[in-house]
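explain this:

___
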Amino acid sequence: MKKSITIIMVIFMFSASFSFAKTIRILMETVPDTRYIQELLPEFEKQTGIKVQVEAIGYVDMHSKLVPQLISSSGSYDLIVVDFYWVGEFTKAGWLMPLDDLIKRDNIDVDRYVPALMNLVGRVDGTIYMLPFYNYSMAMVYRKDLISNSKEKSAFKAQTGMDLKVPTSWPEYWEQVKFFTRDNDKDGQTDFFGTVIQGQRGDCIAMHWSNFLYSQGGRYNASDGEPLLDSAAAISAMAYYREAIEKYSPEGSAGYCFDEAFNVVAQGNAYSLITFNIMYAGFDDPKSSNVVGKIGIAPNPGGGLNGAWGWAIPNSSSQKEDAWEFIKWVESFETAKARAMLGGAPTQSKIFSDADILKKRPYYPILGQILAGAQEFPVFTYTTEFVEKVGRELNLAATGDKELVEAMKDANKAYRKLLVKDGKLK
C-alpha cells in the first residue's frame, strides 16, 4: 500500500511540475530572422528554464490571426512581433502593453537602437510599446560581376556615354536596366531582365512602388498632411513602373511578390532588383541561389522604404514577466550579435560596426547607409486598409487596366478618405 501511495505521489509531483513549467508562445512571420532566433532558442531556455513555442506563419495570415487574440481578455500569445504597418492600429486600440516601467526598472538602454527604427517600431506619442526586432529597409541589389566586366563596361559606354558603375542616380540606374535587358539565346524572346517588378496587389506593390516614388523625389504627404499620390513625382514613378512591366521585367511580374522576384534574380535571370535588405543574405546561400558571390547591394537612388518589426507584449498576455525576460535576452547585444552573424537584419547601431560581424558580413556598413537614407511610409490607424485600397489602384495603373493618371487620382482620393477617417485631415 505504501509503495502504491509513493508511486502515486511521484506521478503527481511529476505531473504538477510539468503542468506548471513556464512556457511562452510567440507568433512570428516566416522570415530568415525568425529562423535565426529559433536556432538560438536553446540558449535562452537553458539560462531561464522558460520554454518557448514559436508559431511561424506567412505574412498574409498574421494580421487576421492576431487581432482576435489581441481583442480577447486572455489571448493565445504572450509575445508578438508587430509590423510597422500595424503600429498605429494596435496602439490606438490599446492592445499593447507600455514598456516604459519595465525599461526603467531593468535599466534597458533604448539609445542603442537606430533612432529611425525606435521611432518606427518603438515609441508612439512618447510611450514605448515595442523594442525594434529587425529592419527590412529596401535597397537595390545588382549583379556586381556584370557591372565590373570590362566588355560590359565598354559596350555600356558606347551605347550611353556613361561609365558602368554602381548607380547613384535614377537616370543612371534606368539606363542600366535598359542595357541589361536582353535576348541571350537569340530566340526572339527576352530571357535576361534589367529589373524585376513586385506588382502584386496590396502590400507587395505598395512597398515596392514606394521606392520608385522616392527616386523621383516624391513623398506620400505634403508638409500640411495632404496626400500626394496624384503629384507629378507620383505619376512619373508610376510611368517608370509601368514601363518596367512592359519592357524590362519578366512576363507576369505584375502579379509577383518578393519571393517570386527574388527567385528570378537568384536563378541568374536578371541584373537588378529593388528589394528588402533581409533578402540579400539569400543570394549568397547555395541552397537558394545560382549567383553566389555575384550580387552587390546599394542604396536605392532617392532612398528606399524604411520598414521594421518590433517586439511587443499584448495586454492579453498571461505571462508578461516571462515575455519581458525573453525580450531582454533576445535584444541583448550578445544575442543581437549572434543573430547578425547568422545574417540577421540589425536594429542596434553598434552591430553595423562590430569587428567580428564585419569580418563575416563585410557589407554591413552598406546596410547602415541604406538604413540612414530610408524614407518613411504612411503609418496611421488605417495603414492596413490604406495598403489594400491604394495597392489596388497602383496595380491597376501598373498593368494598364486603368488609365495611369486616373488611377493615381483615385489612389489619392482613397488615401485622403482614410486620413479624414483617422482625424488627421478635415
Notes: The CA atoms of residues 36 and 103 lie 25 Å apart. The chain is about 50% helix and 10% strand. Confidence is low (pLDDT under 50) at residues 1-20. The first helix runs from residue 2 to 19.
